[in-house]
Task: structure prediction
Amino acid sequence: MTSATTPQSIADRDYDARTAAVLARVEATVDRWLQDDVIDIDTHRTGGLLELAFPNGSKIVLNTQPPLQELWLAARSGGLHFRWANGSWLDTREQREFFDALSACASEQAGKALRFDVSD
Result:
């Protein structure tokens, strides 16, 4: 990571609050899509793990990693790790913002354009 995107160590309670907010935002977006008849994605949440099951049987799994202060995304296209830096969750390899990466993975697996917004 460049110095402009250096991960920030945050207090455990801040990490927990930030990751809980991300998972809640993802769930709220998926619920809205179901209500608006955009797509029927099933969600299953257990603690810091959120599973998104797509109509075609594929899945995306989001998982918190408190010891590392990371948020992980596992999709058909591969796995990504995100760390808090400069006010957002950034991929540790390519510096992609979490919701951009999630949108790309979800769109690929759904076969249609889907957008998770940071501000939902």
